Structure formats: C-alpha cells, structure tokens
Amino acid sequence: MAKLILSVDGTVLREVPLTKERITVGRKPHNDIPVDNLAVSGEHAAIITILNDSFIEDLNSTNGTLVNGKPIKKHFLQHNDVIEIGKHKLKYFNDAPAAAASADFEKTMIIRKPSAAPAPAPAPAAAPAAPAATPAAASPVDTQSQRPTAPPPAAAPAAPAAAPTAGGREGAIQVLSGAAAGRTLDLTKNLTTIGKPGTQVAVITRRPTGYFITHVEGASFPTLNGAPLGPQAHQLNDHDLIEIAGVKMEFFYKP
Q1: Where are the beta strands (DSSP E) in 38-190?
Q2: pLDDT digits (tens, 9 = 90+) for 127-169
Q3: In the structure, how many helices (H) and strands (E) does the chain have?
Q4: Which whole number is the average pLDDT over 49-60?
Q5: Which H or E element spans position 35?
Q6: Which 8-state DSSP code applies to residue 107?
Q7: How far, in Å, CA of 179 to CA of 176, rounded?
Q8: Does residue 19 contact residue 1 with C-beta atoms inside 8 Å?
Q9: How many other CB atoms sit within 10 Å of the CB of residue 28?
Q10: Taken in order 14, 20, 21, 26, is the CA torsion positive or negative?
Q11: What does the pLDDT look like over 4-27, one tens digit per residue?
Q12: Percent of the chain that is helix, strand, coil (3-state, to 5)
C-alpha cells in the first residue's frame, strides 16, 4: 500500500497510508493532512490514488507545491518522490509496480487531442480461414482470435485482449457535442483521462467490478446524469451521461 511520511525540519510527524482515493493537504483543519503553517493555503494540494498509482495536484495554492525541488501543477508520483508544501515535506513510498498511468494520462486526453486516435471504421477484408467474406468490419485484432465461426454481423470494433470487467464486458464513451462529436473511444486501458487541462479533467478507471469516474482537476465538478460528480469515485452504468469541460458524452457497454 502506498503511503506518505510527513516531516518538518527532519522530524517525522506522522505516517499517512493512502487508503482513500482523494486526500487533501492544507492549513484548514478539515483536510485529511492538516498543516498548521501560514505558508500553506487553506486547501493546498490533493493526492489522488487510483489502483496502484497516485498523483498530486496543486489546488491553486498561494505559494505552490514542489516535487523533488521543482514546482508542479499536477505530477504522477513515483517511489521516493519528495513533496514540499511550505516547510513541510511528504515523502511518497510505493513499492508496487506502476501501471504506466502517466503515459495513459497524456495519450487519452480526448478533448485536447480530438484526432489523436481515429475512430474504428469497417474495412472490407476476407477473414482468414473463413468460408466466405462477410460484411462485418475487419480489425487488426480479429486475426488474434481465430475462431472457426464467422464474426458477429454488427459493425463494432473488435475488442483487444484485456482483463475482463464486470461481466466480462468492455466499456466505451461516445462524444455527443463539441468538435469531436460522434467520436467513440474504447476504454481498454486501466486509466483513461477525459477533459480539458486547466479547466476540468476526470479519470475513468477500469476495475474488476466495472468502470469508475473520478474528478481530478478543476474548480467545478463534471456532471453525471445532470448531477455534480463530487470528489469521490462513482461507478458508471450503461448509458450514463457525462458532461465535462462543456462537452457531453455517453458511457456504454459494448455488445
């Protein structure tokens, strides 16, 4: 389990296990890690932990947040990273292997990069060892599942080999408004981020029990079916409607 060691001037004050998905640090007493120092803002920073990975976000504090001596806005934490908030230090410990979250975080920002990953489209091609060509879409991963029967007739992108979620079904989101309207993104990664940096960002995590969405950046929360998301993770249900950074999208389970 990941944890933080809080210290000041070399004296250890407490150990904080990262058992919650969101932990706040600040001068006000309601924070999970209250720091009584005038150099620390009322709500200074937040540490979000998802699966085996954690990252820290500065909450527009007055004096900023440093990680390993460098100012950050948001930073994926690695074992032995040192966070500096005022005169206090938080050392991050996590011996568990990372799930390449930092790479996923940048590559799946669908609003910032609306054309980063093309939407899957049917392409006529003969399936190997099939008795006859079918109108179903051919996909690069179709050849990995060499079944004796023809693929289903529905024109849907083939699912890549991945750990099953609830009921073994894979999820996806379809953008309903904005410049990327009509685009569909398959949720094949453990971490998929959506939103607009500096405005609103959320992360969708894939777990054995299903998909969950968590707010990670922005002064206001995204909405889920018209209601503010809040700071905690929410499980996504089929056909849930998400609105983030002014863009509407729908979560659904692929057939």
Answers
A1: 45-50, 53-58, 65-67, 70-72, 74-76, 82-85, 88-93, 171-175, 184-186
A2: 555 454 444 444 444 444 444 555 555 444 444 444 445 556 8
A3: 1, 21
A4: 84
A5: none
A6: H
A7: 9
A8: yes
A9: 14
A10: negative
A11: 999 998 889 999 999 888 899 999
A12: 5, 40, 55
* Structure tokens that stand for 157 in this block: 């992108």
Residue 122 scores a pLDDT above 60:
no
**Size (the chain), residues:** 255
Strand, coil or helix: 106: helix
Amino acid at site 94: N
Q: What is the pTM of this model?
A: 0.49
d(CA 33, CA 60): 17
Q: Which residue has the tokens 């002064």?
A: 219
Distance in angstroms (rounded) separating the CA atoms of residues 166 and 210: 5
Using the structure block, give the residue that is written with the tokens 């933080």: 4
Section 223-249 average pLDDT: 91
User: In which band, very low, low, confident or very high, does the pLDDT at 248 lie, cut at 50, 70 and 90?
Assistant: very high
